[in-house]
Amino acid sequence: MTSIINIGMDVHSTNYTMCAYTFAGQQAFGRTVLNPDVNEVVKYLKKLDEQLGGGCEFVCGYEAGCLGYSLYRQLTAKGIHCVILAPTTMPDSPKGKGIKTDKRDALKIAQCLTYGTYSAVQVPTPGDDSVKEYIRMRDDAKTLLKQTKQQINALCLHHGRLYAGGKWTAKHIQWLKSQHFEQVVLAETLQEYLLTWEQLTEKIARFDRRIEELAQSPAYYEKVRKLGCLKGIATHTALSLVVEIGDFNRFPTAQQFSSFLGLVPGERSSAENQNRLSITKAGNSHLRLLLTESANTYSKGMPGIKSRALKSRQNNMPPKVVAYADKASVRLRKKYIRISSCSNGNIAKVAVARELACFVWGIMTGKIS
Predict the structure, then answer these.
(1) Over the range 320-342, which residues count as b (16 or more CB within 10 Å of their CB) and which as e?
(2) pLDDT tens, 315-348?
(3) Is the confidence at residue 277, as pLDDT, over 80?
(4) What is residue 308's predicted lDDT score, i.e. its pLDDT?
(5) DSSP symbols for 115-133
(6) Which of 83, 117, 212, 261 has its CA 20 to 30 A from that of 172?
(7) Which of residues 325 and 27 earns the better pLDDT score?
(8) Rounded to the nearest 5°, which phi and psi values hold at 46?
């Protein structure tokens, strides 16, 4: 009879801590520390198999982290069953036990594999993974641009240079370039900040053009077009959803998809006492941020009124998809108005983002009603 041995791996760039565990034995064994090399893992498994008399089936697992999907792909290529565990789905350590070591983490992973107390990370295709990395690089540049703008505004404020009009318009930029300071070094500082701003602006525009090209590929074109029918979801957000989620059908319900994005409220209830918390913020934080930004578009405009850009994205799309997207637009705008009237705008935006995620799931799974 084949024995199933679960191997917990606490992996770092410097070493792999291994721990074996079985449902029958319910005791850790085979603990060791290896060099960060897949061949070392293969040797470890062969040696363990020999010690146990042969015929063992191994299931290796490690937490999603710094190694990404590289170790998974290396082990899979060697014919070894591997799982990447989502950290937010693993049970927390009991309160009062603050000891955390690599050996304990490896044991915890092995036990999760044995008892099934985890959810596996969906491993994207190499193509989807590469597009995801490109989009995130663009978003990192966008964050740097935002920081640079804040630094320029702060510099001007510190030295009494106030601009009365709208910030970062053509007139505002011209005003910034026209500023003169008696101190030469201070003038150089502003010039360097403006140069950084220009370089980042040009770089992001180039990244956006490339993202538009990637969205035109056969693997993504139809999916991106469908998602683009929704208000607030243009090419960048649509392509991010497609490459990071992969198969939307792996979520049986829209609620589970929202939960994956961490957009559902937490709860701490006992007996008859119910205590609702803020959103869990579990799962994919990048997509949660993008959908929250998309939800911001529902804070403006009249229900049912479409922008020129939205009409262009909906052009030549199936009427059923367009009708579903229009239904979402009206419903979410009304929802924002209703919630923001009795609460703050941020709560309303998060609530809209949660329901927008449900409409995204509906379009991508074809469950349109």
Answers:
(1) ebbebbbebbebbbebbeebbee
(2) 999 999 999 999 999 999 999 999 999 888 899 9
(3) no
(4) 94
(5) HT-S-BPPPPPHHHHHHHH
(6) 212
(7) 325
(8) -65, -45
Contact assessment for residue 277 and residue 266, using Cβ atoms and an 8 Å cutoff: yes
In the beta sheet, which residues pair with residue 339? none
Cα 193 from chain centroid (whole Å):
30
Beta-carbon contacts of 296 under 8 Å, excluding residues fewer than 6 positions away, are 232, 349
CA geometry: angle 217, 143, 208, nearest 5 deg: 25
Distance of CA 346 to the CA centre of its chain: 20
Could you give the CA distance from residue 82 to residue 99 in angstroms, rounded to a whole number?
27
> What is the C-alpha separation between 245 and 247, in angstroms, rounded?
6
Assign 62 to helix, strand or coil: strand
The first and second tokens of residue 297, run together, are 């578009």
Q: What is the dihedral of CA 293, 298, 301, 306, to 10 degrees?
A: 90
Task: Answer whether 353's CB lies under 8 Å from 292's CB.
Answer: yes
Strands 81-85 and 3-11: unpaired
pLDDT tens digits, one per residue of 286-306: 999 999 999 999 998 888 889
| Residues 335, 336, 338, 339, Cα dihedral to 10° | 110
Give the start-end residues of each E strand in the chain.
3-11, 16-21, 29-34, 56-63, 81-85, 265-267, 276-279
- Residue found by looking up tokens 């008859």 in the block: 272
> Using DSSP, how many helices (H) and how many strands (E) does the chain show?
13, 7
- The whole model's pTM is what? 0.90
Integer angstrom CA distances of residue 203 from 144, 150, 151, 200, 333: 11, 18, 19, 5, 34
Q: Are 292 and 347 in contact (CB under 8 A)?
A: no
The three-state secondary structure class of 172 is: helix
Contact between residue 152 and residue 195 where contact means Cβ atoms under 8 Å apart: no
> Are 190 and 155 spatial neighbours (Cβ–Cβ below 8 Å)?
yes
Cβ-contact 42, 80 below 8 angstroms:
yes
**Residue 256 neighbours by CB distance under 10 Å:** 12
Of 202, 197, 189, 147, the closest CA to residue 172 belongs to: 197
**Token code pair at residue 326:** 């229009």
